[in-house]
Amino acid sequence: MSARTPLSAIALVSPVQLMIGGIIFLPAIYVFWLSLNQSSFGQAASFVGFANYAKVLGDAYFWKALLNTVIVVAVVVHVELLVGLGMALFFASGVPFRALLLAIVLAPYAVSEVSAVVMWRFLFEPDVGMMSRLLMSLDLPPIEWAVNPSHGLAMVSLLSIWLHLPFSFIILYAARLSIPSDLYEAAAIDGASPWTSFRRITLPLLMPALLIAALFRYIFAFRLFSEVWLMTGGGPARSTEVMAVYLYLEAFRYNAFGPAAATGWLLVLASLLLALFYLRGLYREMFGKHA
């Protein structure tokens, strides 16, 4: 059998490759070119090299947005994975009314981000919101997400967890169901406790799924925009901005297309570095080799 790819196979996949190139690579190349130029509305692009990158890296608001992004991403992803893992184990244990509970758990994934933000703003409105009144009835202070930056970031984190928890849960739940029950039966015969079975069987076999869920959630969370923009608008005083909001403001409020494009590429590089770290871990887990 010839190792060369037949021309017919190349012809069949060429339209897809051209579509991917046109949708992904060409815009990415254009944004990189734009990041090396100074331009705005009604202004011709002028080449400035890496001056836009230097400007962005020297901006205090950029570093504040990066810090907020790291904090929100770290909280969202790790809490989401822990809760999703606990829910996957709970459902796999044979909980009654599983179909109904699955529908309830997966329901937030069908809610649009705009609708979710509107609901949460109403529920946590400091004066008349249902959740704010509940907190006050328990002698707890309301979440002042509109004026307190830390409360605003906490609200964004909770909202993002609620919206995207079904994604992590369904990956971990499917992976848990794929583990043969014979392994647990053999462990029980050997006298293993539930905690030992979890450490020796469940967790190692779920590790590839955990890494995949973490990889996708990190990449998606780094691009967090709608929740922050619709909930706080980056305020007060730009104190709750994240990277995507910073990019949006640079491009469409300050009309600085060059710095905005540079911010976009910095965001891409950060996502690629993070993806490389998790892909190396996934490769080692699946093949037992050191990449």
Commentary on this structure:
The chain has about 290 residues and is mainly α. The protein has one domain (about 60-285): MetI-like fold. Helix content is about 75%, strand content about 5%. The protein is built from 12 helices and 2 strands; from the N terminus they run αββααααααααααα. It has helices at about 5-35, 50-55, 60-90, 100-105, 115-125, 130-135, 150-175, 180-190, 195-220, 225-230, 245-250, 255-285, and strands at about 35-40, 45. Strands 1-2 form a two-stranded antiparallel sheet. Helix 3 (about 60-90) runs parallel beside helix 7 (about 150-175), helix 3 runs antiparallel to helix 9 and helix 9 (about 195-220) runs antiparallel to helix 12 (about 255-285). The mean pLDDT is about 85.
Structural key phrases:
291 residues, mainly alpha, MetI-like fold, 12 helices, 2 strands
The name of the CATH architecture is: Orthogonal Bundle
Cα-atom Rg, whole angstroms? 23 Å
CATH class: Mainly Alpha
**Strands in their spatial order, largest beta sheet:** 1-2
Straight-line distance between termini: 31 Å
How would you classify the helix and strand content by structural class? mainly alpha
- The total tally of domains equals 1
Q: If you consult CATH, what is the topology?
A: MetI-like fold
